[in-house]
Every structure is written in structure tokens, then in C-alpha cells.
Amino acid sequence: MFRILYSVLLFAAGTLHFTNERVFRSIVPKSLPFRKGIVLVSGAFELFFSFAIWAKKGRAVIGKLLAVFMVLVFPANIYMAMKNKTYIKGKKMHPALLWLRLPLQIPLILGALYVTKEDKTEARKLQAEDV
Question: Could you say which of 89, 122, 130, 131 is the most buried, measured as most Cβ atoms within 10 Å of its Cβ?
């Protein structure tokens, strides 16, 4: 069940990177080059991960890569909180909400590892098929 929620979350976030690219670009520090590219590539990674966490083989590697991805995007979340760069229907979000969002990255990182943890029963089935 948690894998479904995590997958949907990743898919929705990845899709939003393409449909609301300008909003996401605003939280990428201006000092970085290719800000639009960064948004589109990170959105593509989220879409990829939304499906990859369902893989039968290599799931543990996918989980580690997803956890690293979640760590790598964390600076954008800090920048967003520092600059209050998030808008909902044209209005800025309250800064406290942006700062309170930062600790949520920890469950996302741990969740990436949890949803990709190898199921012992499934692993035995795969081993039996390989024999």
C-alpha cells in the first residue's frame, strides 16, 4: 500500500515538473545554469522512479538511487524556504509552511529505502525461477 502512495506521489510530482515548469524553475537558485533543464530532468527522474520502484529485480539499487535523488533535491527545498518562492494560485505560501516542509524530506528518503526493500517471499520465488 505504501509503495502505491509513494509511486503516485512521485508520478504527480514528476508530472507537475512539466505542467508547471516555471513554478519549479523559480525554486532553482539563479546561480545555477540550465534551470529549465534541471527542472525537466528532475521531473523525468521522478517519473522514472515512480515506475522503477515496482521492478522485481534491482529494487534495492533503485531504492538507494531514489534516496540519493531525494538528498540531492533537498537544497532546492531549502532555497524555496529561504526565498519564499512557492505560490498557490498566485499567492505566496506562508513561510512557516515552507520551513515545516523541510523535515518531511527525511521520511521521503527513508520511504525510498522502505518501498524498495526486497520482499523475502518474492526473492525466494525469483530464485526458484532462476534454477
Answer: 122
